[in-house]
Amino acid sequence: MPKKISELQSAELKFRASLNKRDEINQQAVVLRSERDSLNDQKKGLQDQLRDARDKRDALVAEMRAHKQRRDDLQKKAKELIEFKKKLKGMPMGDLKGEVHALQAEARMMELRQQTVPLTIPKERELLESLKKKVAEVERLKKVLAEQEKIAKEVKNIDHSIDELFKRADKEHDEVVRLSEEQHKAHEEASAFAKEVSALVAAANKKHDEFLKLREQADAVHQKAMEMREKVIEMKGAKRAERMEERRALRDINVATRKALDSKEVRDKAADEALQMLLKKGKVEIR
User: CATH number of the domain at 7-280, please?
Assistant: First the structure.
């Protein structure tokens, strides 16, 4: 049959069990805290990578927008030149060279007639007046022809400028496409880092919540252990007082016993002495 333990022993066992449970919970909390801190460290590292990816993406977007603006400006200038070219082409040009050559031929014929054919003074004067008008018309048409040639040259230059503007615009567009692809990759990379960071934050928060719950449990068990400790101390104090009372009672009994024994010895000794005296005097006979 197992030995029955006392109430004090039971209280001490419960106290030690509470301490062990508290320490066990605290150890679990330490593990959770370490896991939480590890997750937070990983999160910080990924946040740095996320920040770098976002900075790279933003820089690419800014550069892409600059190339896009230059492309649009070049295309706009090219289109404006196309419209200007249409206006120039819409101006009446005609075959001025042929007309000039014809007038020049007529003027030469008039000069030749004036030099070779006998004319009256009025007829010669009329011929010279007509010649003067022809020469003036030739000069006027030459100026018009020079202007047309200038316009034609400008149109040719405009065509070259339009081609050059569109070539430059195409190069800018190629840069826009390239940078758009790069910024898309950087954005995808940043999004992936953001998802990982979010997952780590959720995991770290979960570990932190579990850590707080364990700490609350440990505090509750610790409080219970302290209450049990007070009870054990109180019970030990009562037990100690009881033992002291028992020792005091035992001491009193021992003192009383010694006193009683001392009194009996004195009486026995006196009786022996009296008996010896009587024997010596012969008043008592031992048979």
Answer: 1.10.287
